[in-house]
Every structure is written in C-alpha cells, then in structure tokens.
Amino acid sequence: MRYKGPLPHRLVRPVNACVTALRASPRWGRPLRRRMTVVTYTGRRSGRTFSLPVAYRRSSEAVAITVALPERKRWWRNFTGEGGPITLELEEGVRTGRAVAKADSGGRVTVTVRLGGGDGDSAAGSAAD
C-alpha cells in the first residue's frame, strides 16, 4: 500500500525554498515569474502566515491556480466555502485578492483568485492549514 498522506515537510520545505530562490534569480527569475507566483495567506485555524510558490494562469483580473496532488496538500483548504484573502507576487508587483477553492467531480482542485488593489496594502487575512 502506498503512502497517501500529506507530503513530508522535510521534502517540501527545501523544494519550495529552491523554487523561490530561482524565481528571484537574475538568470532564471523572469521566465519562472511568468508561470510561478508566491502566495501568502493566513491559516484559518492557526492564524499563522504561510508563503509558498505555486504555478498559475492569469486572465485579466483573475488568477487560476491548479493544485497538483490536492489530496496530499492542505494549503488550498483555507479557501474552501466562501474563500479568503490571499496575496500574490505577480510580475507587476504584489497584488491582493480573494481566493476560492473548488474541486471538480474528478477530484481536481482549482483555486481562483479575484484580484483587488495593486499596492499590496491589505495583508492576507484569515484563511485552515
């Protein structure tokens, strides 16, 4: 039987740190920033702030984040129901918005972010780990 629980932190943290560093690098940053963003949100239950890199697609004032392996990840559950606030680092700068996660009949999860102001002045608020 294969392990189906969350991905181990000892694996996820170094990978996320590497992707975030590459995204900030002069050589690899520009191409990565076109498809990768860093999302920051506050856990609904813990109240802690989390940041992690994710792939995204953008159309006008909306961003779609398809969650890979959603059954093994927990972050997107902060945005079920009515969703919650989120901050994204996009090419034009830090943007805030409201994120809502939806699962389809096949178990695939998409987090849709409706972008708000472009100045990053409203921090991501209560979003469950």
From TrEMBL:
It comes from the Bacteria. InterPro entries: Split_barrel_FMN-bd (IPR012349). This is DUF385 domain-containing protein. It comes from Streptomonospora alba. The lineage of its organism: Bacteria, Bacillati, Actinomycetota, Actinomycetes, Streptosporangiales.
